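Journal club side-thread
Mid-discussion, someone asked how the predicted structure for our own chain would compare to the paper's figures. Pasting it here so we can look after the session.
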Amino acid sequence: MAFVITSACENEKAGECIETCPVDCIVEDQLQMYIDPDVCIDCGACEAVCPVEAIYPEDEVPENEQKYIQINRDFFKSRS
């Protein structure tokens, strides 16, 4: 299980999550931040510092934000 960044991050991009991540699994693009599910170690450091509460453990992503699980995965698939 990995953490997932959801819609609250769109056009926000505060950046505390990137600075806090011990494994550098968070990447920023023009729209928002994304968490690489293959690198995330599930430490929760990013969730604790997110000022817009956009980060959730994968199994706790709200129903209306479920599409962001795949959006985060697809972002990293397109980079490889």
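Post-session note: The chain has a mean pLDDT of 94.
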